[in-house]
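sanity check this record:
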Amino acid sequence: MGRFNPKSFAQSDLLKTIEPLNLIRLLEPCRAFLETRGLSLPRENGSEIDYLKLIGILAVPDEFMDSHVIEGLHVIGTLGADENFDDLLDIARRNFIDVNLEATAADLAARIWLEAPQTLEMKDREAGSRHRRKFESFRARDRENVLPLEQLPIQFDALEEDLERWFIARKRGVGCRVIRIDLLNEVRFLVQHGDPFKRQPSRKGAQSTCTYFRPEKTDLVIYDLVNNELRINTRTLGELRLYREMFGKHLFGDPEKFVYAQKYTLLPLKKLGAAALYCRDVGGIERVCLKEIEYAWPDAIDHIERHKAEDMFEALRRRKRGIEIDAEIRHAVFGVKLAGEKTPRPVLIKPRNIAEYGRGEEAAIIEEWLRAREFVLVGSADAYEEVDSFMAVA
């Protein structure tokens, strides 16, 4: 089954934004299934679709629905919004898909799904990559040696072969694809590959059965052109080491170009207190609050202490307290209020190298603030040998 969210099509207005002929074509593989549920799809454009009946069926999808239709409904529901209209139009034109002058965004998404579904799936994954939050950072050993965007390769056959060899050896199956996405100050690489097989209990109507399948996983590797860093979002330490080495080797000719040297520190909270949250010199940020802090006390039998508040410094002031100087700050969560947004964004910093916050276009503003307040260490990556050895045995 796909990731279809029936709530996205819970209103007939959304289904009606898709031209009836396109909606009929989209649902055609489910015609027999829909008929068993009491809905007869029209066989020609102009015939009325029973939208209320269709909504009732889509609200409770089951295992007998065609999985390709379910995935199509998911992608169309996700991308068929007005803010994506121009991007969808560009995709349609690149794939020579005729577009009606009166097409809606949802209708555009449906047309693309019918003619070139793989391009819409890629757009969906690209959009999903912008919501990745947790990244490990690898700093370039030589910070000044930055490879210009135009010199980065666009073909990844050798890289994909090396990655696939690793995935096969670790029972992830065959097949690996690397897709490059160029943004303003960074290049994103989506790495699609298999995961270990899963066996899950499932239902086939009234019958209890089992589904055995290999999930697909998409990891994200970012090359930061401004700061000459590699940032990686993946689940396992083995994949983290793999991407650091293989992207360094195939993109830059040096598997050790990026090293695991400390990037983040929370010492400014101890040194400056509330002044460490100053943000007026960074355009696009209205205010910053400290929301959470976690301490580890030395020689205290692993004593961990965590504090939360809407404004930690104000809460500490009222209790006539401040940041604990003698404790190690394990992590801190900031609320960063960006201009034009209603609520602050949570930004988690965990030394040595973990940052967790949304990676859309506004991420550059947050990164600028972190560097301005010296939460990001700058200079040479001279501590890499000690930490790399930790990576090798962890």
User: Anything to note?
Assistant: The radius of gyration is 25 Å.
